[in-house]
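call fold(seq) -> tokens
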Amino acid sequence: MTGVPASFGHWLKQARREMGYTQKELAQITGCATTSVRKMEADAYRPSKQVAQRLVESLEVPPDEHERIIRLARTASPPVSRSTLRVEPHQQAGRSRPNNLPAQPTTILGREAVSKSACALLLRNDVRLLTLTGPPGIGKTRLALHMGEELLSGFEDGVFLVLLAPVSDPKLVAPTITRSLGVQEGEQAAVAALVEYLRHRRMLLLLDNFEQVGDAASDLATLMSECPYLKLLVTSREVLHVRGEHQFSVPPLDLPDLQRLPAVSRLDSLSSVRLFVERASSVNHDFTLVEQNAASVAEICARLDGLPLAIEIAAARTNLFSPQEIAVRLSSRLSLLTSGARDLPARQQTLRKAMDWSYNLLSPAEQLIFARLAVFVGGCTLAGIEAVCNPRGDLGIDTAEGVASLLDKSMLQQAEQKGEERRFAMLETVREYAMELLQASGEADLVGRWHTQYYLALAESAEPELVLQNQLIWLDRLEKEHDNIRAVLERHLLPEKVSSHAIDGEANVENRGNVEVALRLSSALWRFWLIHGHLTEGRRWLERAIEQTGSQLGVSATSPFVSAYRAKALHGLGGLAYTQGDLPAAQSAFGAAFALWQELENVQAATWSLSNMGLVAVALGEHAAARSCYEEALGIQRDLGENGAIARTLTNLGVLAHDQGDYSAAMLLHEESLALARELGNTGGIMAGLTNLGLVKLDLGDYDGARDLFQESLDMALELGSQHNVAGALINSSVVAYLQGDHATELALLRRALPLLEELGDKISIANCIEGFGGAIGVMADPMKGVRLLAAGATLRKVMSAPLPTRDQARYEGSVAAVRARMSEQAFDKAWSEGLLLSQKEAVAYALLD
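ret:
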């Protein structure tokens, strides 16, 4: 094909002719109607994404050009040729901006003018906060995402989406924003950390579904006040009532006048009709707007008041009914259902009626599973649906069949599949409707218990796996189910559900169950929260559960069973506080856990707390107190004959001796610990012993000996598939290379380690690795990049309140000095300032960039 086509229609016609197809033949090959092909070539009709995909495949377009041609077909893209497709420079620049905007499976229809108007308003200098308001199903979220894509090139620090639908506690809004941005949690409050991160950034935040966390609006006011270049785009059913807020009411799609219907050729120029036609054609490839169904389609759109969600649900039924049948059924349902809540907006009543109608088309078995699915938050797997929605086998339908049916009827969505298990979710508006049905059925408490049992079992199954070779699989599984886990914790930690009296008799059994579930769940999850950086949230759940067992039930009245889980929860709370650098809180939590273990006469567990108290004492510089804790624990463990515990405590004593410069004592302690681990076949203990001996040899100047020990640890970790130990051995080996001046080997080892650490989410080790990168790159090739990475490492440590260990200080200062010597003071200061602004995610990507 020669020349440059003027439009997609022109391209399609030329490509079809080159392949030798008639319009009818191309329609048959792609499953379209001939009239649809004719309209597409006349630029009077845009194909669905599925139809566009079939077109490019049928016309033998090279695979690497599929996406661009489909984009041309679906949007008003610049002219392109079949052989050479280009994106305009401003589009390339926009798409290169940092963002987490999800790819949209369908184009936005009928919102071009609305989007343009809203974007223009948001870009005004005096508008910092724009709230998109409207009833459920009006398309606020989809419009916001489209605006984010359109505005991407205008915000040099990017556009980021923050999903708030799963969040019900306003205090968790700021931590949710930090996670979406990749901002590290540390000693600072989440709002303060956000202010520090966003103060000088030109960024747009999209905060979706804000209505249930309205009390967090004050946090948004703080961000606007302290971050002058930040803009906020919020979707909410209610106005936020914050100073400086501008409201934009999202209108319905434009509707046909049933008294004066235009010709069929012009009817689908109306956005509501065009949406119905496109969604109908995606489920029924033979569907097209013709004279015979035009009036019925217009009636459906009009009766649904132009609400996109309602129209999509109705259009999905064209695989079962003709538009004429849908119009009759919909009209009948609407005429009957006129007693809805009158204080609801008219369009919300209409949507509810549309939902009622769609629900009534389901079979009794489908209705039952649809209502029970409402208990899930943030999606679920088929295994979860089976366990929660059909544990007694009373659905009257195979679970998988029921799920497939709901998918076909657009009552359930299939989430993007990134792992082995497919996930399913409801649109929030649909889930709210389903929840009303579940509550009305009288099954809400029962299904809630099944939901609790499933996720409690999941968390307790995951707990031991988080320190084994399948760690990554279980961490990913818990992350995907985190919203459901939050829902369980909220269900069992609501203040009004917990009695203020001690457990006494049958009336308080449910309250006791609430406490036990909260303790069991939170104490099983603390390591997940630690590794994946949910530090603030994890502490909040643990503190709530502990507080309720203490202040509301009374420690003395608590059963031994509950006390044991309370001690575990205190242990986890101490670990999170210790990681955040909140040493007084960690010391208090570990001390309380120790007291409970003693009360329960669990001597073995008490030694765990003693060891943790020793770790805190070391961090506080209280070496005598640390030694006392370790030696007391060691004495108990020797009496019990617990060789595994003895080995761990010997390791702690060895590290303490190492920190104090007593290398001979450290070597003896680590050798004894290693010997015990080998005797027990404890691979984790063996790798720890090898590592600690290697670190002592490093400080003694025995680099070859240290390298051999680290290599043995690495070989063992690779054989076991233990990514955490692999990464640790690689970093330790890189230190040997650094000390021997072999920066090329150092850099190669770090390149292997950093992606593993990012996958694990080990933030302290990531800081170590990035600093190593900075030193090696700065000396070898690029001093400016090296300084930026060294500064980024310093920022990560500051946020975590995790200063460099004393033994690493000299090496770090040597790296900084070596890089500084290669550049001017002015250049160094500039690069350092730039590096301080890098987030963890940005720093990792920058380090790995060639």
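The beta strands are 129-133, 159-163, 203-208, 230-236, 245-249, 380-381, 413-414, 423-425.
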